[in-house]
């Protein structure tokens, strides 16, 4: 379908936003604060107007970097952050109690140097607290003007509907790419029905569909993907065969693999936006350069046949991590 500007909670945004996580952690050594600030400023210059962060990214470092870098440009972008994953020393927990949500927001506002976060997500489902109670607390913050809208991350269609019955849910953020099709089970359609924007994180499959992992699959010691089954051992070797074929399609169509991957995600619905992350300015420029390229239907079908939940080898997460995720899984 033709690509045009899209919206979150009534705010127009570029379909390609910026996931800021890589500026603080996750895929190896993050850039210096100076280089991170340079990338953030360049993002706004290029037309990125939707920045996505979270408290857990660098344990506050990511929010701090955005606040210190962009406080004087705050009116130029739609700002999203998240709470719900709490780290105390070497212990990590999911906590979406109302009092925890309120305290976390106040800290985020301070770090981000702003009096309002446009979109505030529950980062994960807290199975010990009714979702209605957590959303009720967020609704209070909307009424107080401290947040503009409520989002959920990595949650099911059932949870989305229960939350939406308490207060409109502006966005659902979940991993979505050719390699990760779980949202197609139920969440994509639920978002469409409810008027909820679907925010696709890792739209280039955690770098796999952007030449971000070498052919040997070697990953750094601190790289999160080392604990994700599809990126290791025989699983990776099998998936690499699919990726090589995908790269050949990109070359034939005259786009980069990342651009092809983003175009595929955006073609799945006009209620979808993407937030590819990067710590590299060249990749930042690449990701947005063809944001309005319309994927030919024949190519979309070819990609669907090539890479899908039946052809990809290995699950998204190891069992321990999967138990913390509320999204639907394929049988």
From TrEMBL:
Listed A to Z, the keywords are: Oxidoreductase
Question: Is Oxidoreductase there in the keyword field?
Answer: yes
Q: One Pfam family from the UniProt entry?
A: Aldo_ket_red
Give TM segment ranges.
none
Tell me the ranges covered by the NADP-dependent oxidoreductase domain, including all copies. 16-302
Protein name, entry field = Aldo/keto reductase
**Organism, scientific name:** Novosphingobium tardum
- What broad taxonomic lineage does this protein's source fall under? Bacteria, Pseudomonadati, Pseudomonadota, Alphaproteobacteria, Sphingomonadales
């Amino acid at each position: 379908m033709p690509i045009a500007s899209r919206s979150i909670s009534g705010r127009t945004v570029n379909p390609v936003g910026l996931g800021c996580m890589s500026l603080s952690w996750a895929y190896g050594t993050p850039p210096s604060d100076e280089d991170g600030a340079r990338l953030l400023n360049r993002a706004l210059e290029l037309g990125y107007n939707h920045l996505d962060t979270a408290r857990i990214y660098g344990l506050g470092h990511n929010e701090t970097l955005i606040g210190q870098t962009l406080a004087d440009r705050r009116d130029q972008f739609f700002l999203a952050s998240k709470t719900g994953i709490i780290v105390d020393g070497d212990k990590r927990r999911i906590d979406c109690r109302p009092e925890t949500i309120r305290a976390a927001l106040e800290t985020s506002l301070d770090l981000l140097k702003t009096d309002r976060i446009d979109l505030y997500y529950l980062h994960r489902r807290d199975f010990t607290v009714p979702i209605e109670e957590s959303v009720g607390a967020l609704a209070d913050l909307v009424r107080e003007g401290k947040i503009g809208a409520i989002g959920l991350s990595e949650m099911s269609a059932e949870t989305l509907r229960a939350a939406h019955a308490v207060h409109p849910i502006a966005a659902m953020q979940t991993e979505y790419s050719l390699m990760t099709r779980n949202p197609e089970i139920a969440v994509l359609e639920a978002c469409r029905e409810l008027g909820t924007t679907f925010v696709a994180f890792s739209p280039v499959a955690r770098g796999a569909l952007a030449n971000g992992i070498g052919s040997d699959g070697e990953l750094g010691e601190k790289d999160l993907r080392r604990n994700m089954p599809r990126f290791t051992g025989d699983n990776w070797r099998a998936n690499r065969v699919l990726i090589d074929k995908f790269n050949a399609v990109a070359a034939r169509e005259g786009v980069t693999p990342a651009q092809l991957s983003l175009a595929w995600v955006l073609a799945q619905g006009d209620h979808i936006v993407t937030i590819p992350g990067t710590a590299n300015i060249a990749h930042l420029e690449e990701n947005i350069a063809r944001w309005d390229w319309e994927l030919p239907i024949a190519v979309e079908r070819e990609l669907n046949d090539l890479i899908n939940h039946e052809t990809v080898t290995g699950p998204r997460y190891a069992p321990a991590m999967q138990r913390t995720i509320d999204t639907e899984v394929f049988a």
